[in-house]
Structures are given as C-alpha cells and as structure tokens.
Amino acid sequence: MAIKRPIVSLGPGSLIFGTGTGASLLDISCQVTACKVTFDSDKEDDLPTLCGDTIAGEKIYTSKLEFSAGQDNEKDGLIDWTWKNAAKQVPFTFIPKEGEAAAVKGTVTVDPVEYGGDVKKRNISHAEWDIVGLPSFTPDSTADSTVYPPAPTP
C-alpha cells in the first residue's frame, strides 16, 4: 500500500539571513508573503562516439531563493539591510513550518530589493536571489509527517 503523505501548507515558518545578532542578521519571517526555492538546469549536448555509443552531456543545476516580503523603513530592516549587503554572500535558513524538521539551508548572493510601489497600498518587494552551489534540504521525519490523516491522539 502506498504511503499517503499530507500536502504541505506554508507557515507559520521563518526566513532568516545572516548569522549572529543585530545588524548582521535579517529575520523577515513576519513580512514574507511567499517563499520558495527553484531550480534550473543546463545540459551540454550529448557526444556521439565512433563506436556508436553516446556519452551523455553533463547536467548542471542552479537554484534561486524567491520571496516576496512587505517593505519597511527601519534601520537594518529589509530595504536597509539588502542595500547595505548588496553582492555579499550570506547564509540563509528557510523553515516552511515551525515544529517540523523540514528546512532549507544554503548561501545566497544578496541583491538590493526594490523599494516603493503604489500609493496608499502596502508595498511588497519581490526578490530572486542566486543560491551559491545547491541548498541542502532536511526532510521532516516527525511521527505525523508520513501518515495522512494523522492518527487521532488519545
């Protein structure tokens, strides 16, 4: 029988950049309206050989951290931090749902996010930051993560 796995819903979770405390850390968890890690691949052409075989072209993956977050005007907030840290490589941790083990960690190259938008509206910045190398994924292995619906608690 196939294992029925629950479909994940995002949140409450966290998105944190940097390490330590203060100005070196940016926690925008309460501003994020969307977050995901995406992948792209580039494959070299296959190489035919004299004997009739084919040597498969190498495949190279790249990834991005894409997020949308509400803008703020605070010192060391989203706008200030990303503008001050432009082009720096910083670690990140994306936890889709607190209380579960699932997490994505890696290093991103910071790009300044957009600032401003529509008058009399809450302005949202959208960002796509390159991940250096590939991120790591820690799957959830809690007791309720592979059984759907979860077993009733006594």
Provide the low-confidence segments as ranges. Answer: none
| Largest sheet report | 5 strands, antiparallel
Q: Helix content range of the residues, please?
A: under 10%
- Strand content bin: 35-45%
Classify the oligomer: single chain
Estimate the mean pLDDT confidence: 91
The Cα radius of gyration reads 20 Å
Give the tags.
five-stranded antiparallel β-sheet; 154 residues; mainly beta
Structural account:
- The chain has one helix and ten strands.
- The protein has 154 residues and is mostly beta strands.
- The strands form three sheets. A five-stranded antiparallel beta sheet has the order 2-1-7-8-10, with no helix packed on it. Strands 3-6-9 form a three-stranded antiparallel beta sheet, with no helix packed on it.
- The radius of gyration is 20 Å and the shape is globular.
- The mean pLDDT is 91.
Overview in brief:
It contains one helix and ten strands, in the order ββββββαββββ. It has 154 residues and is mainly β.
Topology record:
Blueprint: E1 14-18, E2 25-27, E3 32-43, E4 47-48, E5 54-55, E6 59-70, H1 78-84, E7 89-95, E8 103-109, E9 124-131, E10 136-138
